[in-house]
Amino acid sequence: MEKRVLNFSAGPACLPLEVLKEAQQEYISYGGSGMNVMEMSHRGKVFDGIMKETEQDLRELMDIPDDYDVMFLQGGASLQFFMVPLNLMTKYKKAHFLHTGIWAKRAIVEAGKYAEANVVASSEDKTFSYIPKVDADVFTKNADYVHIVSNNTIFGTKFKGVLDTNGLPLVSDMSSCILSEKIDVRDYSLIFAGAQKNIGPAGVTMVIVKKELVESAPDDLPAMLSYKTHVEKDSMFNTPPTYSIYMAGKVFKWLKKQGGIEAMEKKNAEKAAVLYDLLDSSDMFKPLAAVEDRSLMNVTFSTGDAEKDKAFIEQATKNDMLFLKGHRLSGGMRASIYNAMPKKGVEKLVSFMKDFENKN
Ligand code: PMP
After folding, report:
1. Where are the beta strands (DSSP E) in the chain?
2. Which of 131, 199, 262, 356 is deepest in the core (most CB within 10 A)?
3. Ligand 1 geometric centre to CA of 223 (Å)
């Protein structure tokens, strides 16, 4: 068995070993086809089957209602920062944003190039270490939607519960928490997420959107930027990222085998608790996110001493615990513990942290 490290990267991130092994078995010939999936025509029967099954499994896992469309697109979550305004800003040419970090900011900047991006609240004053609490009436009715980032990958904060948007459609960037906990899709009008954190390889971005919003989108958008195009052509207007979709499909099947999203949520809560318990009791390591807004997927912490943080990251790396360096803005460390990270991996990290604390 080849060496595997503990990969705490924020994305692309680790994938379930079972999924990698299955893909390895199918590398030369998928299901007796005599081809790797990446060698097949996306118009052929075999890939068509993969595509349909992948969408069906995602629908089952997330319990996506029939009046929602699912798209598998390219361009990353970043393209959605512009595609959402283009398709959804139909009436007021304005949307409300909660500024909770760098990915929220990117969305605000992109939307602002096209129309009005109104920031109703921000947690920039405390380096995005918390989620601002807002009353529903800040979301004035003269806007097309409200945009949030459900899980802030860089700062390790998470929106808990459902935001009251005063009746406006809610758009959420779920790139770093999709499929990690049970949500009611009906609470959102549009959800988007890049795959490379909690799903599969980079290259595919899921968009889940209420059909009525696709129907009311403008007809004159450039084809590739129009949800109508991709919905009408079942995400096959042009060549889709076939291999990434195939791998995402494998992860969906793996999730079903784990017991679905409710079971994953339970495991994720237990896993994150192992790390937060240590952070709450340690004299050296301190958590960076406000207790009530802690993410289950990205855990940020620091010793408060940049030199010590650096030494910790170096020694962790030597011990095959990789990519623990935090983002430049928050400093310190970040352990990304998505669905595919086993609890044993987090326990190993915690035991290493205890050891580091004792020695230093
Ligand atoms: N949104 C969030 C919450 C993210 O974490 C990221 C990636 N780190 C992005 C958007 C950007 O994703 P992409 O690189 O797929 O465009």
Report:
1. 6-7, 68-73, 94-99, 116-122, 145-149, 151-152, 157-158, 170-173, 190-194, 205-210, 286-287, 298-302, 321-322, 333-336
2. 199
3. 23
